[in-house]
Structures are given as C-alpha cells and as structure tokens.
Specification:
The protein has ten helices and twelve strands. The radius of gyration is 17 Å and the shape is globular. An eight-stranded parallel barrel has the order 1-4-5-6-7-10-11-12, surrounded by six helices.
C-alpha cells in the first residue's frame, strides 16, 4: 500500500505578521497571514498551521483576532499554537475557528495539561509540539527545548515523546533547531527515532529546502510534511510538490490543486 502524506504550510506569527527565521532567530517578514492562508488553500494545501512564536515568552495568549481572520478564509484543517497555556485559552482559540490546538512549553511544564486538553476536546484535536536540538550527552542525542526554543530542559526528546504519546496524543510536531530555516533538509534521524518510539503521526518540521527533502521526510516516517520558508518565498509550489511526490510513489491528495 502506498504511503500517504499531507502537505502543511506553516504560518509562523510575530506581531500579526507571517515571519520566518533561521534556527529560531534572524526573523524576516513573509507576508499577511490571511492572504497567505487563502493562497495556500487555493494551491492545494491539505492542512494549515499557525504558530505564534513569541506568545509564550511574552506571557500572552495568541492573537485571537488574527486566528479568527485566518480561520474564516481557511478551507482545510487548521492547527493553532503559541501561548496556549490553559483550557480557557484553548477554548477561545477553538471558538475562533481552529481545528486543533498545538501546545509545547505549557505541556512540558505541566504534563497533566495534555490530559486536560484531551478530556476537553478529544485526542484528534490536540497536537504536542516538541522543539529539540542535538545533544550527544543524552541517550537519543536530542534534547527538548521550550520557550520558543530558548530554554534547554535537560530532557531527552524521545523519552518526552513517549510520555506525550502515553497520554493519547495522536500528532507530535517535532522541530529541530539544528535544521530550522537552513533549507538543507529535515532532521531525518529525529523523525525516524520518534516514529519508531511512538504510534503517533509525526509532522516533519524544520529544514525543507527543495522537493526531495519532503520525499526524504516521508520515507523517514513522517505523515504530515510541514514547510514555511520554501512555500512563503516560492522556492517550492504545492501543486508541483504533490506531482513530484506522486512520481516518487508517495500517495498525496489532489484537492483542487
């Protein structure tokens, strides 16, 4: 049976604008979120993510007005993350039109929050994001970071992923600081480790630079392929990517693209 993958553009948000950085810094503007969302849906995106990359460190909620405006034009499942630290905030995000909420730092600091979210919304509507960097002193070689990749935790990333999956989480979104924004390819060993360690759907995130990188991530075990810079700056176009993946034996959805 052919492996099916979904294509997920990601809108990293700062001050109401789409931005993109390298290794979580060197941020530059990449456009208006509503216009980006419209364009990606029209191009055939299967999913859309929007992550408020400074909400947690600024100790605030995500910008709900922006969530609502993007949700209003989005025709595919829509995941929102950044600054979601309690159930009322998650409810507010859902009420603005999000399909799923993504949590990272708050889930790490208080793992019971994951259970609370699943109890409130169901496992299919909760994503746990895990920012990691390479650390050869840990068993897996990867360490969990929180606060938008700013704070090292000393926790092994694979052990944390196993714990996350044990709560019933069905989608894990790991982003490798090592690869993020470099356009040199996804961190394939990380994807393989997490796929082998859990039964969750793994989102490939951080490092896509060309179409072959997406194929490599699919072969490593990712079922959702996330891209930001490559899509925002027109390096890779979604219809062409899907045709390429199809030609390599990967099952993709052609939904109006």
């Amino acid at each position: 049976m052919e492996k099916q993958v979904l294509i997920m553009p990601c809108l990293d948000m700062q001050a109401g604008r789409v931005v993109k950085g390298v290794k979580f810094v060197d941020i530059r503007d990449a456009g208006d979120p509503v216009e980006c969302a419209k364009a990606y849906c029209a191009a055939g995106a299967d999913e859309l993510a929007m992550l408020d990359i400074t909400a947690t460190v600024e100790n605030r909620r995500p910008l709900l007005d922006v969530v609502k405006r993007v949700a209003d034009v989005t025709t595919v499942p829509f995941t929102v993350g950044g600054g979601i630290g309690d159930i009322p905030t998650a409810v507010a995000v859902m009420e603005c039109g999000a399909t799923r909420v993504s949590v990272a730092s708050a889930a790490f600091r208080r793992p019971k929050f994951i259970s609370e979210l699943i109890s409130e919304f169901g496992p299919e509507r909760v994503v746990v994001a895990i920012d990691v960097d390479r650390n050869p002193n840990l068993p897996s070689g990867y360490e969990v970071y929180i606060d938008g990749g700013r704070t090292a935790t000393g926790k092994d990333a694979v052990e944390w992923a196993k714990e996350v999956a044990s709560y019933g989480v069905r989608i894990i979104l790991p982003t490798s600081k090592f690869a993020d924004g470099m356009q040199q390819g996804f961190d394939l060993p990380l994807i393989k480790l997490l796929k082998e360690a859990t039964s969750a759907t793994i989102v490939a995130s951080g490092g896509a630079g060309n179409m072959e990188h997406f194929y490599e991530a699919a072969m490593a075990g990712a079922e959702i392929l996330l891209g930001a810079s490559v899509f925002h700056f027109g390096i890779v176009k979604i219809p062409e990517l899907k045709r390429y993946l199809k030609s390599r034996g990967i099952n993709v959805r052609f939904n109006g693209a």
